[in-house]
Write a structure and sequence with these properties.
heterodimer; A: mainly alpha; 14 helices; 69% helix; rod-shaped; B: mainly alpha; Rna Polymerase Sigma Factor, Chain: A; Arc Repressor Mutant, subunit A; 2 domains; 9 helices; globular
Chain lengths: 309, 184
């Protein structure tokens, strides 16, 4: 070895030559194996930082996974919250008091106002918006909780904005489809009076055909047909028994029409007509005055106009 | 014998970067010189093996701190030297020449085929061995680093942690002492 080393001078070279002849001890194989094993054991720890480009994404994926789980939880909580709100609205709609009070009228309302919105053909979206404005123009008769009212109103508007076209509804109320263009020139209350007249045209046969207010039908005022086959015209029965697709829209409208503890104007109009038919004109006048007082924005049907005098 | 070059630093860096196959090659290039330096410094096989293994353990553990600017062999010898100094400080009684004689006797040297030369070489090696053993510790280390590992004065100072002049002085005294002891 010393022959290959230039840095030695002459004196060192002689010593180096002699030193090179000393016994060349080497580490034992066991010692070699111990060191190499230790190095192998350290290799994974060494490769971890070397593979940090792989490790970092794993850490990022871990974070992304945690974020995904958190987002899923938030979504699930939101859905659960909305699910809780929907049954509350249904319970409000189907409370026994409302059932008892609004059984006839609710079916009428359900068969008039919703049908009014549903019967418009798909091409008459403008009519639907008119009807929507008519519903929205009705002042709140009572003072329901503001939050619930807003929630219900938004639900109703949502439902009205996306009514599925129903062939049955189209067949049931052709008059409204024809009357709808009459509403277009004006969006005032006068125009909505026309819509109300159209509604009355639709609703009148129902009352005429119904000899007596049937006992409060079960939640069926919206969802199931009347038990008596002759209680209402078939088309109204069909309208009152909406399909699954129609149900949300009906629910939305019903929320607007039927307030807790409130007899809706339509139902009052029906009651007033019944009073007139029964000959109780004084009671009819008083009920008419109450109607005007409670619903100042409600457009009274023309057949009741003489009661104002 | 393999000479440590900058390739050793490259092997070390490759191993640190995850190339597991680099370490056995690096070890094979360094182990003999390192082991002999340790063994002739401490003159006890058992202690030499202990320090040898500990040197590699520390090199493995400190692999992340290895600076490629320094020669790998210098860095490794520096670790070993520190362990040797620690071993001296533990005041373990230095082995007599007999222990080291027994250790080196198990390893055959490069004997000449000629009997007269063999006897002469044997006597010279014995004298050299005795002279190395009689050196003070610092001078012995400096001499071994120069003869065994072929380090320069600067590198000896770097390994032993002293300045160039100190390293040069130690080496000069060691050489003079060896020559005196080698002279019949």
């Amino acid at each position: 070895m010393s022959d290959q080393q230039p840095p030695f001078d002459d004196e060192e070279r002689e010593l180096a030559r002699l030193y090179g002849k000393l016994p060349r001890a080497t580490p034992s194989p066991a010692l070699d194996e111990a060191v190499l094993r230790q190095a192998r054991e350290a290799v994974p720890a060494t490769q971890a930082p070397a593979s940090s480009p792989k490790g970092r994404p794993r850490r990022g994926l871990r974070w992304a996974g945690a974020l995904a789980v958190a987002a899923s939880l938030v979504l699930a909580a939101n859905l659960a919250w909305q699910q809780r709100q929907l049954p509350a609205s249904k319970a409000q709609l189907e409370s026994p008091k409302d059932k008892a009070e609004t059984a006839p009228a609710a079916s009428k309302a359900a068969s008039s106002e919703p049908v009014e919105k549903k019967t418009a053909p798909p091409g008459q979206a403008g009519d639907l918006s008119k009807a929507e404005r008519y519903v929205a123009a009705l002042p709140p008769p009572a003072a329901p909780p503001a939050a619930a009212q807003g929630r219900n109103a938004s639900t109703a508007l949502r439902a009205v904005k996306t009514p599925p076209p129903s062939p049955e509804a189209d067949q049931a109320l052709p008059e409204l489809a024809g009357a709808a263009p009459a509403q277009q020139p004006s969006q005032s209350l006068a125009a909505s009076a026309t819509a109300a007249d159209a509604m009355e045209k639709v609703a009148a046969p129902a009352h005429a055909a119904a000899p007596a207010p049937p006992p409060p039908p079960p939640p069926a005022e919206i969802g199931s047909p009347p038990s008596s086959p002759g209680a209402a015209p078939p088309e109204l029965v069909e309208s009152a028994a909406p399909s699954i697709d129609q149900r949300p829209a009906l629910e939305g409208i019903a929320v607007v029409a039927a307030k807790p503890g409130d007899a809706g104007p339509e139902r009052r109009v029906a009651a007033i007509r019944q009073m007139l038919r029964d000959g109780h004109e004084a009671s009819a006048r008083k009920a008419y005055a109450d109607l005007r007082r409670d619903f100042p924005g409600f457009v009274v049907p023309r057949d009741l106009a003489p009661l104002a005098k | 014998m393999d000479r440590p070059t900058d390739d050793d630093a490259a092997l070390m860096l490759a191993w640190v970067a995850g190339d597991a196959a680099s370490f056995p090659l690096l070890y094979s290039r360094q182990k003999d010189r390192l082991y002999r330096f340790i063994l002739r410094s401490v003159r006890q096989r058992e202690m030499a093996e202990e320090i040898f293994q500990e040197t590699w353990s520390r090199a493995i553990a400190a692999r992340e701190r290895y600076q490629p600017g320094a020669r790998f062999s210098t860095w490794l010898l520096q670790i070993a030297h520190n362990l040797i100094v620690d071993a001296f400080r533990r005041q373990r009684p230095e082995s007599t020449g007999e222990t080291y004689e027994a250790a080196v006797a198990s390893h055959p040297g490069d004997e000449s085929n000629q009997p007269e030369h063999a006897l002469s070489d044997f006597q010279q090696r014995r004298r050299l061995q005795q002279a190395i053993d009689d050196l003070p510790g610092d001078q012995r280390v400096a001499f071994l680093l120069r003869m065994e590992n072929e380090l320069t004065i600067d590198q000896i100072g770097e390994v032993t942690g002293v300045g160039r002049e100190t390293a040069k002085s130690r080496l000069r005294y060691a050489m003079n002492r060896i020559r005196e002891l080698m002279t019949p």
